[in-house]
């Protein structure tokens, strides 16, 4: 284990100094695009104008015969596309794959100053992050990259889940963690073919209203199979000072269920999610920007309790030091998002 005092020294001579605080720009959605797809590359400036973050995906969903062209396409994006200041991320291939070394080497040396975050799939423990951390530092030094590239882990194996805390604390480069529900479901041998979201078999059932007939009057409600995982990921991230994200929702046509899944993650503490299709950008924006009515009530709490202490009744509800802090979370997020968004500024009354 590294000595805490060494944590902020570069891991290679000439690499930029590690960051002390993780930057928190609007991060409501990480929009995935396939850089081997010329049409998607051409549309990227328009997508970047709407999305908080754009991510060139090199891993799953990119066919084997397009791995090289996806990498080259992302280099072209980094060198030529006008993203108007929207952060550019990548998801590289997994660490056991034959492509990842070339992914990281090419991207850091060719477009290291354009790349904000490298997302690492299927992270199983701190050792995976340590490997990438040192490699990226060596490449940053070689290429003269001026600010450190951050790392983001995807939780998508049972082993990774068991080690989520050590992953979150593994390096000062750690920016955040996302849930990878498809790979995680497979790793855990969960019985679902869905990419995120609920399942009609995962339900709670009310008691029967007729003791003789067990079918009568019983209400079934689908539960969220990702509740435990997301909550644990949020705790690991917050305790390490990094950002938790939900992941993909694969049923692109079911915008209603997508919104419900995103909202559950938002309420549990996630700062954002992935969008796989342009339609999911607007859903994420709506869900991960706090509701103006809640923000108005939170502002009322803060205004009514200027020192944030003691017990108060506001609109019939008890408020105290702790609920003042809850209100602060909502208002701080709303203020941050409203800075670059006139519509939200008006909606929140700032
Ligand atoms: C899911 C898709 C394959 C659907 O694509 P398509 O059938 O082409 O959808 P549409 O016809 O509705 O598309 C309309 C137009 O929008 C463009 N489009 C579609 N998706 C994107 C996008 N992500 N970014 C930019 N533009 C997009 C289409 O080109 C159409 O354009 P036009 O013809 O000009 O009108 C597709 O959306 C897609 O490939 N999405 C990304 C999928 C992806 O990245 N998957 C990997 C992440 S999820 C994962 O890996 C699982 C995870 O790791 C885990 O373990 O859980
Ligand atoms: Mg995956």
Automatic annotation (TrEMBL):
<keyword id="KW-0460">Magnesium</keyword>
<dbReference type="InterPro" id="IPR040442">
    <property type="entry name" value="Pyrv_kinase-like_dom_sf"/>
</dbReference>
<feature type="binding site">
    <location>
        <position position="183"/>
    </location>
    <ligand>
        <name>Mg(2+)</name>
    </ligand>
</feature>
<keyword id="KW-0479">Metal-binding</keyword>
<dbReference type="Pfam" id="PF03328">
    <property type="entry name" value="HpcH_HpaI"/>
</dbReference>
<keyword id="KW-0456">Lyase</keyword>
<dbReference type="GO" id="GO:0006107">
    <property type="term" value="P:oxaloacetate metabolic process"/>
</dbReference>
<feature type="domain" description="HpcH/HpaI aldolase/citrate lyase">
    <location>
        <begin position="31"/>
        <end position="194"/>
    </location>
</feature>
<protein>
    <submittedName>
        <fullName>Malyl-CoA lyase</fullName>
        <ecNumber>4.1.3.24</ecNumber>
    </submittedName>
</protein>
<dbReference type="InterPro" id="IPR011206">
    <property type="entry name" value="Citrate_lyase_beta/mcl1/mcl2"/>
</dbReference>
<feature type="binding site">
    <location>
        <position position="156"/>
    </location>
    <ligand>
        <name>Mg(2+)</name>
    </ligand>
</feature>
<dbReference type="InterPro" id="IPR005000">
    <property type="entry name" value="Aldolase/citrate-lyase_domain"/>
</dbReference>
<feature type="binding site">
    <location>
        <position position="156"/>
    </location>
    <ligand>
        <name>substrate</name>
    </ligand>
</feature>
<dbReference type="InterPro" id="IPR015813">
    <property type="entry name" value="Pyrv/PenolPyrv_kinase-like_dom"/>
</dbReference>
<feature type="binding site">
    <location>
        <position position="91"/>
    </location>
    <ligand>
        <name>substrate</name>
    </ligand>
</feature>
<dbReference type="GO" id="GO:0000287">
    <property type="term" value="F:magnesium ion binding"/>
</dbReference>
<dbReference type="GO" id="GO:0016829">
    <property type="term" value="F:lyase activity"/>
</dbReference>
């Amino acid at each position: 284990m590294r000595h805490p005092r060494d944590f902020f020294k570069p891991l290679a001579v000439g690499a930029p100094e590690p960051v002390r605080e993780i930057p928190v720009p609007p991060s409501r959605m990480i929009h995935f695009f396939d850089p081997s797809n010329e049409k998607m590359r051409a549309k990227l400036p328009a997508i970047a104008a709407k999305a908080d973050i754009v991510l060139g995906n090199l891993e799953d969903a990119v066919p084997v015969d397009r791995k090289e062209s996806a990498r080259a396409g992302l280099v072209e994006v980094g060198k030529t596309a006008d993203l108007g200041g929207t952060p550019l991320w990548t998801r590289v291939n997994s660490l056991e794959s034959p492509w990842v070394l070339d992914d990281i080497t090419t991207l850091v040396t060719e477009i290291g100053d354009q790349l904000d975050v490298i997302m690492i799939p299927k992270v199983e423990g701190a050792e995976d992050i340590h490997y990438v951390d040192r490699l990226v530092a060596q490449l940053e030094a070689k290429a003269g990259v001026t600010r450190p590239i951050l790392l983001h882990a995807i939780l998508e194996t049972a082993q990774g889940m068991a080690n989520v805390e050590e992953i979150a604390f593994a390096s000062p480069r750690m920016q955040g963690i996302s849930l990878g529900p498809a790979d995680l479901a497979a790793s855990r041998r969960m019985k679902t073919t869905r990419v995120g979201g609920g399942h009609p078999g995962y339900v709670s059932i009310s008691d029967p209203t007729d003791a003789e007939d067990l079918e009568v009057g019983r209400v079934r409600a689908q539960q969220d199979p990702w509740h435990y995982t997301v909550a644990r990921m949020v705790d690991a991230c917050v305790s390490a000072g990094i950002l938790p994200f939900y992941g993909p929702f694969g049923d692109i046509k079911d915008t209603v269920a997508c919104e419900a899944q995103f909202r559950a993650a938002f309420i549990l503490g996630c700062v954002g999610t992935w969008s796989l299709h342009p339609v999911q950008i607007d859903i994420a924006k709506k869900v991960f920007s706090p509701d103006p009515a809640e923000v108005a009530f939170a502002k009322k709490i803060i205004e009514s309790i200027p020192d944030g202490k003691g017990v108060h009744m506001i609109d019939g509800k008890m408020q105290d030091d702790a609920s003042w802090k809850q209100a602060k979370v909502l208002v701080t997020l709303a203020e941050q998002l409203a800075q670059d968004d006139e519509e939200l500024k008006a909606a929140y009354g700032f």
